[in-house]
Amino acid sequence: MIVKNIFKWIKNPKHAVRFMLRLRISRLIPDEKFLKLKYKYLIGKNLNLNNPRSFNEKLQWLKLHDRKPEYTKFADKYEVREHIRKTIGAEYLIPLKGVYDSVDEINWDDLPKSFVLKCTHGSSSNIICVDKEALNVDKAKKSLKKWMKKNWYWFGREWQYKNIKPRILCESFIVDESGIELKDYKFMCFGGKVKCTFVCMNRNTKNGQVLNIDIYDTDWKLMPFKRYAPNSGRLTPRPRDYDKMVYLAEILAADTAFIRVDFYETNEQLYFGELTLHPQSGFGKFSPESYDYLLGSWINLPNKAND
């Protein structure tokens, strides 16, 4: 009834969906119905959950039907550290400077010159500080307080986020061989095996920088597609520790239909980034679209036959 009334109030159905998805009242919509509405709005197609074929469709199916208890720990940026310690070793963890249950617990004077603050219970909730003297602390506090009140489950119905305890981590600021940035190597693992790697550059998109993502196959050859960010237009050298990262990623990806495992490579050390079960929450468009179906063909859904 609520959904029907909203469509009556707003003549344009697309605007109606956008309006509804932004309201807290959307939390009354069951997960499957919500995902179908949001998929139609963002991807522009009907979501086929009976016979999902594309990567984005299969991620939506996995949200609804693959809800292992350990996934909450995988998504929790603090709790996952213990999982990493037990599986591949503590040496791959970025040094931790502090853990806080609220913004008010942070003693900003005690923080190092450079650091990263990140919320444990969601994504895109980071404060990357290169120089504390230039940091707008009031603005940082405002952002953190806003993020701490947010439950990322409601954005895309990713079950693993629903019951994470909101906390803030302070990690060491690290850079790669360039000395000025940090490339993010995102290993796309299908059935426990790496099939391709997304390389993210210009992650701190300030000063006019644009996030770039290039995709490489397992022979470190560029794949001719993009997803939610433009390609850089240049080749990134094969990482020094590429083979080790693949080996470790496949350990962490064991017993999953799909998971993305992120690593950073510095001059001295290889570091774990995060585990992601549904990149872009399954709403990231591919260009060309055929790669949505190629990557989708690599996912074998648990307890479901694939065409």
Order of helices and strands: HHHHHHEEEHHEEEEEHEEEH
The separation of the N and C termini measures 36 Å
What characterizes the major β-sheet?
5 strands, antiparallel
The number of E-state strands comes to: 11
Q: How large is the radius of gyration?
A: 20 Å
The coarse silhouette is globular
Q: For the residues shown, what is the average pLDDT?
A: 90
Q: What proportion of the residues form beta strands (DSSP E)?
A: 15-25%
What is the subunit arrangement here? Answer: single chain
Low-confidence stretches: none
Spatial sequence of strands, sheet with the most strands? 7-6-5-9-10
Describe this structure in words.
The protein contains ten helices and eleven strands. Helices cover 30% and strands 20% of the residues. By secondary structure, the protein is α+β, with helices and mostly antiparallel strands. Strands 7-6-5-9-10 form a five-stranded antiparallel β-sheet, with helices on one face. A four-stranded antiparallel β-sheet has the order 1-4-2-3, covered by helices on one side. Helix 1 crosses helix 2, helix 2 (13-22) packs across helix 3 (31-43) and helix 4 crosses helix 10 (290-297).
